[in-house]
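re: that complex we talked abt at group meeting.

here r the seqs, copy pasted straight from the sheet so there may be weird spacing, ignore it
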Amino acid sequence: MATDANAEGGLVFHPMDQFIVKPLFGGDAVHWYTPTNATLWMVLAIVGITAMLVLGTSRRAIIPSRSQSIGELAYGFIYKMVEDVTGKDGVKYFPYIMTLFMFIVFSNFLGLLPMAFTPTSHIAVTAVMAFAVFIAVTVLGFVKNGASFLGLFWVSSAPLALRPILALIEIISYFVRPVSHSIRLAGNMMAGHAVIKVFAGFAAITAIAPLSVVAITAMYGLEVLVSFIQAYVFTILTCVYLKDALHPHH
Amino acid sequence: MATEPHGAESAPGMPQLDFSTYGNQIFWLLLTLVVIYFILSRIALPRIGAVLAERQGTITNDIAAAENLKAKAVEAEAAYNKALADARVEANRIIAETKAEIQADLDKAIAKADAEIAAKAAEGEKAIAAIRASALENVTDVAKDTAKEIVAAMGGTADARSVTAAVNARMKG
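got the structure back, here u go
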């Protein structure tokens, strides 16, 4: 009993500490301009993206080197996604979508490094991106289609009696989009990292430690998958919303 | 016991809901996205797009060149086959011609040989006839002499003329 209590007391869980935004160069106040750990890992994402897409392709070889192949793979992956989902006229928005994808995928993967900070685990970050997509797509829809953009909510293939109800549902779902869009990404990243930390906390008990290590390893593998899939999901949803703005009629 | 570590935590439950850091994160996020956008749209994406287009062009050109070469190869094969057929026809023609020539020569030679053989045969026959004639003469002479000698040996005197007449008569007989 006594040892049990001791072991219990030795367990310290701080699963959420990894998400605290701290000033990078000391001090306590986080002003809007203070360089923080979030700044550091965003800058590292920029560095990573530059290394992959700019330095990797610097030789512009017809027969690509390995690093150039990776860059081309990422380019082709997103380009094809944009083209497939939004059609030919969506291709001009490809750089914006590529920006979002590269930032999210690099933030997610860099966040998997031990002691790292994951900008995309913060709702502030994902919400800004999701609302930017939402506002951009809505404005674009009205600019491109005028009032007929509202046809997105008027399901002309449904029976007339059902249309007002469907319109209500469509409008609600339209406005919920940015919320689900942002919380999905932040929630996934936060939950995975927190769970890993919890498992790590259990490693303080010697008997459970091996199990804990196995669990962390499994969880880490899952997180690698989730990191990519969530970046992919965020990007493809952006493409789908963009498609709705460009072709609002079902 | 359960509350102790809780109390020791310095941060609130979820740092994600600490609104005091939102301005900071949003500022740095927007800056980061703008920087990434400019890096991608000014440098990375045009470059990769150009490389991919160039590669596509190269591949298309290479395929076209390969098809061209293939067509040329087919053409060359046809020309080769035609040349082969022509050569075969020519060879057959030369063989027929040569055969005819040889046949003509052969016929001429055979005719000449036949003529020679006929001449030789006639000559031989003449010689044989001469030999036969002279042999008959000799036999007559020998018979006359032998008859004379036999007559003399019998004790008579042979009259040369009667002996000759008798031998000749016998020879005819």
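couple things i noticed - Confidence is low (pLDDT under 50) at residues 1-8 of chain A. Chain A touches chain B through 57 residues (CB under 8 Å).
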